[in-house]
Every structure is written in structure tokens, then in C-alpha cells.
Amino acid sequence: MSITIRTALVTGAAQGIGKGIALELAKDGYQIAVTDLPHQREQALQTVKEIEQLGVKAIFIEADSSNRDQMFKAVDETYEKLGSFNTMINNAGIVHVSPLVEVTEEDIDRINKININGVIWGIQAAAKKFEALDQPGKIINACSIAGLDAFQMMGIYSATKFAVRALTQVAAKELAPKKITVNAYCPGIVLTPMWDIIDAKMGEYHGVPKGETVKKYIDNIALGRGSVPQDIANLVSFLGSEKSDYITGQSIAVDGGVLTLLEDSFTAIGLELTEKPFKLEFSKAALTKILLKYFWSKSEKSISEESLDNSLYLLIATCSNSTASPYKIEDSSLYVLALENIKWKSSRISLRLE
Ligand SMILES: NC(=O)c1ccc[n+]([C@@H]2O[C@H](COP(=O)([O-])OP(=O)(O)OC[C@H]3O[C@@H](n4cnc5c(N)ncnc54)[C@H](O)[C@@H]3O)[C@@H](O)[C@H]2O)c1
Ligand SMILES: CC(=O)[C@H](C)O
């Protein structure tokens, strides 16, 4: 009896998250086709070598994800050379860092071609091959937490990741009858060369030294550390396995708690979001901590503890009307009123909202 070994194609796997995913899937027993751009050849061949050392077959195919023909050819070559094709990881992506008002037409065209078109070509090429082989398949796309909640200074990048989430949902619906599942991973702050670029560009813009921007973002992670590719690869390993067979159309955050931190801060100070009227009570220290985080996440410049000290800030949170997510504090439902130059009169503030 011959057993066919499963094969995955991972785009942009010369480095970073793609490389981490390729290695993890290889550990799961997959043969791997690594794709990347020509200038990444040496690094891609290093990924191939590390996969082979795990005892499975791997090949490198030079392919630009933004080029439809190259993506279709890469899938064909994967099947021809490795003898099976089961899983498509549309990982390749680029970032763009600048305020929205400074974005040019070229910036938009460049990022859309890779982050949006590239994912579409990958979905199409994989779906066509699964259909031709008359078999089920799995397609897994790179989204981001910026595709769940847009990041300042990363407006067009966030837009492409919102698009990936939409594409994942649509492809999941359209391809479900063919037993093809489509999901996405939404990494948080992963310490790859992409974050070196973000840190450098944001640092340049705000005039802060190298390493400071990424440190601030990491300080905002509930689990207290930046992410590594292995964190993402662990989810992709699950999404690639039969254990995820009943999951489709989902974009799943792997972020160590970045998105939930603000909400959790409120929970931590005892804000009851379930019923009205509710009571808001916090110590000065707790409120200061939350405000520092809040202002840091909302503004480009950080605010000092001393400047908060001379002001009394009143936070009013209202319940979201969304029945789907009754506990989530939406941005629009959080108001911060600053009453400047009022000294703290007591160490605790209690507020009742009707
Ligand atoms: N690093 C993070 O914090 C983070 C967070 C959320 C989402 N993501 C997403 O995860 C994916 C991987 O990110 P990363 O951090 O590993 O990035 P990275 O820049 O470290 O690596 C990306 C790889 O993709 C390749 N690539 C770029 N354009 C390509 C193209 N047109 N065709 C083929 N390959 C191409 C690059 O050469 C590189 O090898 C991206 O889609 C990114 O948007 C990253
Ligand atoms: C780069 C990226 O998608 C997040 C914001 O870290």
C-alpha cells in the first residue's frame, strides 16, 4: 500500500514567519515548496536545507506572489516535483509605514499587488489544483491584528489586511462545497525583519532611537513578550491538520493579548459592563496606568506620568450595543475627558453611570 505524503506550498518562506511555518509543517511530516523573490534565493535555499535536515523533501521555487502566472506555475511545479499538493500558505506580504495623508498612488499599488492580489492568486491557483486533483484542500492566509483593528501609521497596510480577512471569508463560503477550507492567521508583534522596518520607519518619523518603538509596542502586550514565528507556526500547524476540518472563514489572532489589553484594563479595575447603571471605581495608580496605555495607543507621542498627575481625567465607558460582542468596548464608546490643572483630591474616584 502506498501512502501519499502531504505537501504544502509556503509563499515568502525565505525568512520570518513563512520560514517558521515551513519548518513547523515539515515537522508535521509535510513536504514543502518554499517560494520567494529572486534576491532571497540564498536565504530560501537555507530554509530548504533546514527542512531537509528534518528528513522531508523540500524545493525552492522562485515566484513573485503578485504575479498570477508565476503563482499558478509554482503550484503546478510543486505537484509535479513533490507528487502531491494539499495546503497553500499565502504568507508573503510587505508593510508600508507612513501617515495616511502622505501615502502616494505608487505606495498603494505596490502594497495592494502583493498583499491583496498575491493572496487572490494564491487562492485561485490552489483551488484550481485541488479541483483538478478532485481532493479537499486547505488554504491559509496571512492576515494581521492590523486586519482586525487598524494601526496608525500603517493605514494602507491595515487596509490590505482587512481585505485579506474579507477574502478569507468569501473564499471559505465559495469553496466549502469543494471541501476546501480557508482560514487566516493574525499575528501581533512578531520580531522578524518586517518589524525592523516598522521600528526604523516609525522611529525616524517620531524622532526616537532604533528599538524604542518596538519596545513600546511590546510593553502593550498582555503576555509580556514580543512574538516569535513559532507562535504563529503553532496555529498554522493546527489549521493545516485534520483537527481544524470543521473550521473555515476564520481570521484568528495570535497576539499575546494586544487587542484585549484595553478592555482587560477596565475589567481589572472592576468596571461592570453587563448592566446599567454600573459603577466605575479605581485607584489613582490603576487609572494612571490605564491612561498611559490609552494615550500611548491613541497618540503618536507618549504622555508622561507627571503630566497626567496634574490633570484629572474622567473616563466614561458605555456598553456596546452590538449583540454579537456585548462585552467589547468599541473605540467610539470610550470617551476621555481631560480637566486640566485639577489636583487629585482623593486617592480613589468613584463614578456611577445611569
Ligand atoms: N512581523 C509581524 O509582526 C507580522 C504581524 C502580522 C502579520 N504579518 C504578516 O505575516 C507575513 C510574513 O511577515 P514577516 O514578518 O515574516 O515578514 P518578512 O518581511 O520578515 O518576510 C516576508 C517574506 O516575504 C517575501 N516576499 C515579499 N514580497 C514577496 C513577493 N511579492 N513574492 C514572494 N515573496 C515575497 C520576502 O522576500 C520575505 O522573505 C506578512 O504577510 C505580514 O504582513 C507579520
Ligand atoms: C506588522 C503587523 O501586521 C502587526 C501590526 O505587527
Automatic annotation (TrEMBL):
UniProt-recorded Gene Ontology molecular function terms: diacetyl reductase ((S)-acetoin forming) (NAD+) activity
Active site feature: 157
Enzyme class: oxidoreductase
Binding positions (NAD(+)): 15-17, 36, 91, 157, 161, 187-192
Coiled-coil region list: none
Reactions mediated catalytically: (S)-acetoin + NAD(+) = diacetyl + NADH + H(+)
SUPFAM superfamilies given in the database record: NAD(P)-binding Rossmann-fold domains (SSF51735)
NCBIfam families, per the entry: 23BDH, PRK07231.1
The protein, known as: diacetyl reductase [(S)-acetoin forming]
Native source species: Wickerhamomyces pijperi (Yeast)
Lineage, uppermost ranks: Eukaryota, Fungi, Dikarya, Ascomycota, Saccharomycotina
